[in-house]
Design a protein that fits this description.
With 254 residues, the chain is mainly α. The protein is built from eight helices and no strands.
């Protein structure tokens, strides 16, 4: 990791750390909005179901209900996250020297890929993306909501705002760690498939199973965990503050 930082600074300067960052930066607001909107809509659905069954506290959702609420948010989010992560990955690995054929930026990427391969090209790797989003966000939101419900029970309160902000941040960080601990190998496979050749005859991997087999054969289990430490260092603070902002927003809008 340290060597990567040194070489990137030397060869590309500080801007090298933000290669391909424009698209996710623009899209992250939309993605987060979709995630939490779908989450809340599904939670309301399950709450209504619990109420119809005369459950004593319908707002307290079961683990399967929390998992499915998170999964619904992940599936909804994949409509944007798939192409956004595709273009980011392509821009990050393309030749730094501006070699012929390199994409000039996100807009150039979408124009050229769509003109040659249509929506299928834009959504390359969407199958494995859906697997990651369904499982990952199910774990992510289930972990957070379960920890919040437990703390509210301990404090004997029905108000989420009564849970201290530092605890919300801690629960959010734990959710991020849970997501990436379980789903990181899936994400690694997704990235390999998305950045594989568009042309079938030139592809390194025939599909998900073939990608797993070849990665194991050439790199072993650790081939699925390249960059894992860096991701985990980022996961705590990013997701901690994300959930703090979410709870603050929910209090403001009522």
């Amino acid at each position: 990791m340290v060597d990567c930082v040194k070489k990137t600074l030397k060869n590309e300067g500080f801007r090298g750390f933000y290669k391909g960052a424009l698209t996710p930066l623009i899209g992250i607001g939309a993605c987060v909005s979709i995630q939490f909107s779908a989450l809340e809509a599904t939670k309301r659905y399950f709450t209504a179901q619990n109420a119809s069954r005369n459950q004593q506290n319908p707002n307290t959702l079961s683990y399967p209900q929390l998992f499915l609420s998170g999964s619904a948010s992940g599936i909804a989010n994949s409509v944007l996250s798939g192409p956004i992560e595709h273009v980011r990955s392509r821009l990050q690995i393309q030749a730094r020297s501006g070699a012929a054929g390199a994409y000039a930026g996100p807009i150039d990427f979408f124009k050229r890929v769509y003109s040659q391969y249509g929506l299928a090209g834009i959504y390359k790797g969407q199958g494995i993306t859906l697997v990651r989003e369904f499982g990952g966000y199910g774990i992510y939101f289930m972990t957070y909501e379960a920890l919040m419900q437990r703390q509210m029970k301990i404090q004997k309160t029905q108000k989420r705002g009564d849970v201290p902000g530092w605890m919300q941040c801690l629960f959010g960080a734990a959710s991020g760690y849970a997501l990436w601990t379980v789903m990181y190998p899936i994400d690694a496979i997704k990235s390999r498939i998305q950045t594989d050749s568009f042309e079938v005859k030139d592809r390194k991997y025939k599909g998900i199973v073939d990608c797993v087999r070849k990665t194991l054969a050439t790199q072993g289990v650790m081939g699925f965990y390249r960059g894992f430490v860096t991701t985990m260092l980022r996961a705590g603070p990013v997701n901690g503050f994300t959930f703090m902002a979410y709870e603050a927003t929910m209090r403001v809008i009522g």
